[in-house]
Amino acid sequence: MRILITNDDGINAAGLAVLQEIAESLAGPTGEVWTVAPAFEQSGVGHCISYSRPMLTAELGPRRVAVEGSPADCVLAGLYDVLTDGRPDLILSGVNRGNNSAENALYSGTLGGAMEGALQGIPAIGLSQFMGPRTSCLDDPFDAARQHGPALVRKLWEKGIWDDGPYRVFYSINFPPVAGADVAGTRVAPMGYRTDSFFTTEATHSPSGKKFLWVKGGPQHTATAPGTDAALNLEGYISVTPMRADLTAHDVLDSLKTAIE
Question: Which sites bind a divalent metal cation (predicted)?
Fold first, then answer.
């Protein structure tokens, strides 16, 4: 089995080392795990691609390449520059340091990498580790992902829904902000929505008087609707969310046709 891994926290991130372990456990001793990951952190870039500029790449070791680009760029580089002798069977992106539950999924570079894999016709999974007070005191804040990731990814690979339509299904896994021993179980769940948590900006000034804006995230431990990803994560459950890149609001198509056409 051949697996391509990437992330958005950068090629030296601790979560990518956890993902390497997960991928190696699935690929087995005769398989291959290839890393093509951003040279620098790319959090929050979503499904961005470097369409208007070239990307510098560097081979750091066997099956290990750094790209000055986004996670989606890394998937493209992996498919069309690195793995030229054959496509991977699976693409894994993560393990992100922080949750990609609820609306965070829309900004996530981690899921942007998985989405690009799906658009390229390859099964893909994004993995994220929710952080919080109960992980900050752990020697390994990725303990839940490290303990439960290998078996869950294998189960999803073997029993998940892998279609071949124009907008293939890909998956988002969020591990809860608890130690591995305290994980309550795994639940398949839709995206939630944090009604009182938004990205905002905060202005600062440089010594020369120039104005800069920092983007600030909102509270991450705000409960979402019962049974949705972030709510389940805060209850100690791993959430698995099937996703598609199709952004059409199918639920309003018929009503809009009646109103407009």
Answer: 8-9, 43, 96
In terms of C-beta density within 10 A (0-12 exposed, 13-18 middle, 19 or more buried), how is residue 249 classed? exposed
Instruction: Say if residue 245's pLDDT is above 90.
Output: yes
Token pair, residue 144, equals 């839940």
The stretch 175-181 carries a mean pLDDT of 98
Phi, psi of 115 (to 5 degrees): -60, -45
The topology (CATH level 3) of 2-193+223-260 is: Stationary-phase Survival Protein Sure Homolog; Chain: A, (3.40.1210)
Give residue limits of the domains in the chain: 2-193+223-260
Which residue from 98, 96, 101, 119 is spatially nearest to 47, judged by alpha carbons?
119
Residue 96 marked in a binding site: yes
Is 43 assigned to a binding site? yes
Q: What is the sign of the dihedral through the CA atoms of 104, 107, 108 and 114? A: positive
Query: Is residue 197 annotated as involved in ligand binding?
Result: no
Nearest to 28 by CA among 64, 62, 1, 63: 1
- Which pLDDT belongs to residue 74? 98
> Where residue 57 falls among pLDDT bands split at 50, 70, 90?
very high
Q: Would the annotation count 139 as a binding residue?
A: no
